Structure formats: structure tokens, C-alpha cells
Amino acid sequence: MVKQPAVQHFLVLIAFGVLALPNVQAKGSEMFVCTGSDGVRTYQNSDGGAGCVPLNLNPITVVPAPKSSVPKSGSFNSGRNTDSGTAYDRRTASDFNAKDDRMKILQEELRIEESKLKSLQDEYKNGQPDRLGEERNYQKYLDRVARLEQEIMVTNDNIEILKTELIRLSK
Fold first, then answer.
1. Is residue 151 situated within a structural domain?
2. Which of 34, 90, 133, 156 has the smallest CB count inside 10 Å?
3. What angle do CA 80, 91, 9 make, to 5 degrees?
4. Does a structural domain hold residue 77?
């Protein structure tokens, strides 16, 4: 099985969590974040032992939209308040807490990806990494250099995705 980068795992967790979190919490189950020896994070619903910690998820509050008393006839905006501040004013404290929690998670993921990028770049040494003892065959060395290049590109992409998402959330 090919391991996906931590950001993709995180995005899958968010998509799954939005749909299934109320059911998971209703059953009393917990989610765990497990970090493997290679630094890859996985999310699972059972404790995998060493390297796994429970993920504390705040419950999701679903508030139904108020029923509108706007008449159906007339112009498109008839009777509607078009003040852009009104949607902001209706936000609850839990909305702000959830946003803060998402930002903290994304900032932590960004820190991890930047740390991973730094270690990959240190090993890569601008395309001239040190040859390891088991790389007597030059092709093995070239394969490792290509793998490092690929991991650096993926990690850079993950960092850009995280930064974009953080900018979107900060607005």
C-alpha cells in the first residue's frame, strides 16, 4: 500500500469527519492520530499502540437556518437585508472555536511539513546527496536521488496547500 502525505490524510479526515462525526461521537468512539517511525501520520478509530494519541474533537453544532419571512414575489433582493455584516453577526461562539481549532491543526501540520522539507533538503544536498553503504550499485543511488526529488516536490505542494487553507480561514 502506498502511503499518502499527511495533508491528504488530514483532508480525508475532515471530509469523513464532517459526514460521520456525529455518528462516531454518538457511539462514544474516539479517533486516534498515529505517527509511524517514518513520520507519516495516520488517523484511525482504534488505538494502534505506540505512537498513537487520542484526537480531541470538539462536537459539531448544527444550527438550522431560520425560516425566512421574505415574500417569494418581487425582485430578487426584495425584503432581504443585504448588509454584508449580518452573516458575521449571526455567528456563534462555537463557530469561532471550531475555526480556531481548524487553524491550530493546520498550523501544526504546516510546522510538520516544513520540518520534513528541511530534513529532505538537508539529505538531498542540492542534488548531490552522500552515497550510502548499500548503494554500491549506482542505479540505487540515482533511484534514491529521484525519490528525494519527488518527496521534496510533494512536500512543497503540501505546504502551499496548507498555507492557502490558512489564508482562507483567516478571512
1. yes
2. 133
3. 120
4. no
